[in-house]
């Protein structure tokens, strides 16, 4: 049985939950970027290291664990080494529940997310600003590579995001693990159309796959619960997070030859001003055009991966992965 987390210390900064597995280089880049954040030295960091799923995964898991045991630069570093393989969904669900239960809030990252220097400041400012507004489900650090016509540094969207996010204990209590019950509720309230419209993925299919055991997504259940509760999530207008793991190295992420998610990170600090949590029609329309492009590129990337044996047969050398702008 894994040891319980230590009792919380008094800290003005939200605790950071970092979930790692078997990618030492991605983990190093994630930690180094996070340590370079303004406010990192005042932030407690909890690193949750999942156990290997198979014996073959053990060497890389051990490399990751050897590295994270050396991490410094934070108010405190607590490494939680799981004794059995939990999988990503259970790891995140239990880790976030532990931290929000102890601290009342948490910032959540995975081992393939590079953050801008202003990420922690933005997340903490937003957690403070909306702590007493239950209409705001979460704070998200990633923003798609689009341009918004707005003077504000933030906006609200109906769907949360999983690439660098934060929430509060009372909002996390909305999470439901029963995917079948969530799907039934979405169908009963005729919300499946809205469910699929708020992002570049087929979320209904993703939820059905989770129910059938074909994926292990915690996020799809978090999003479904959010939509059913009519909550909003706060985003920066320019991204503070970059996903460095869309390279085929992760358990849950295939390689994209043409990457529509690549972003240039925000350089300076973004201002968080309290605003009414409503979705901008203009922002929604801008994102809808982007989502259609991503869906088209999904087929292009799928075809590219399927042609891999033919490319190897003819000896074609693939140039570097390309970034595709909307």
TrEMBL record:
Gene3D superfamilies: Spore Coat Polysaccharide Biosynthesis Protein SpsA, Chain A (3.90.550.10). InterPro entries: Nucleotide-diphossugar_trans (IPR029044). GO terms for molecular function: transferase activity. It comes from Methyloversatilis universalis (strain ATCC BAA-1314 / DSM 25237 / JCM 13912 / CCUG 52030 / FAM5). Keywords: Transferase. The lineage of its organism: Bacteria, Pseudomonadati, Pseudomonadota, Betaproteobacteria, Nitrosomonadales. This is Sugar transferase.
């Amino acid at each position: 049985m894994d040891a319980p987390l230590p009792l919380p210390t008094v800290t003005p900064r939200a605790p950071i939950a970092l979930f790692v597995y078997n990618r030492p280089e991605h983990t190093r880049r994630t930690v180094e970027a996070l340590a370079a954040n303004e406010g990192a030295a005042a932030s407690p960091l909890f690193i949750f290291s999942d156990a290997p799923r198979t014996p073959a995964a053990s060497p890389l898991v051990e490399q990751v664990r050897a590295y994270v045991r050396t991490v410094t630069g934070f108010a405190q570093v607590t490494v939680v080494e799981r004794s059995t393989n939990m999988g990503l969904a259970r790891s995140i669900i239990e880790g976030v529940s532990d931290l929000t239960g102890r601290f009342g809030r948490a910032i959540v990252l995975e081992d393939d997310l590079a953050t801008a220097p202003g990420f922690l400041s933005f997340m903490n400012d937003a957690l403070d600003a909306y702590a007493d507004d239950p209409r705001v489900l979460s704070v998200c650090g990633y923003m798609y590579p689009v341009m918004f016509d707005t003077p504000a540094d933030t906006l609200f969207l109906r769907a949360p995001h999983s690439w660098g996010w934060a929430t509060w204990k009372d909002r996390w209590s909305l999470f439901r693990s029963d995917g079948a019950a969530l799907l039934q509720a979405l169908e009963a309230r005729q919300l499946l159309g809205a469910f699929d419209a708020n992002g570049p993925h087929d979320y209904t299919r993703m939820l059905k796959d989770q129910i059938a055991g074909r994926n292990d997504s915690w996020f799809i259940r978090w999003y479904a619960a959010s939509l059913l509760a009519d909550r909003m999530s706060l985003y920066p207008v320019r991204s503070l997070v970059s996903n460095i793991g869309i390279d085929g190295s992760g358990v849950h992420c295939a390689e994209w030859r043409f990457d529509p998610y690549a972003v240039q990170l925000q350089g300076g600090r973004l201002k968080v001003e309290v605003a009414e949590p409503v979705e901008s029609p203009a922002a929604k329309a801008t994102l809808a055009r982007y989502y259609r492009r991503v869906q088209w590129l999904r087929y292009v990337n799928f075809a590219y991966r399927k042609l891999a044996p033919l490319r190897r047969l003819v000896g074609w050398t693939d140039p570097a992965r390309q970034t595709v702008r909307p």
